[in-house]
Amino acid sequence: MRERLEERRREFTSKMRNRKLFWSFIIILFIIAGILAHTVFNSDFVRLKDDLAANFKSETVLPTFKKPTTIMLMGIDERKDDVGRSDTLMVLSLSKEKASLLTIPRDTMVYIERHGYKKINAAYAYGGAKLARETVEDFLGIEIDHYVAINKARFAEVIDAMGGVEVYVERDMYYEDPWDDDGGLIIDLKQGRRHLDGDTAIQFVRFRDSEGDVGRVRRQQAFMRACADKLSEPSMLIKIPELLSVAVKAIDTDLTSSEMLAAAGSLKSAEANGNIKTGVVPGWLQYIDEVSYLIPNAERLGDVMRDNLGFKVSKRHFERLAYEYAEGSDADYYDVNFNPERDLRVMESIERRRLDLSDNEL
Question: What is the DSSP letter of 97?
Answer without folding.
Answer: S
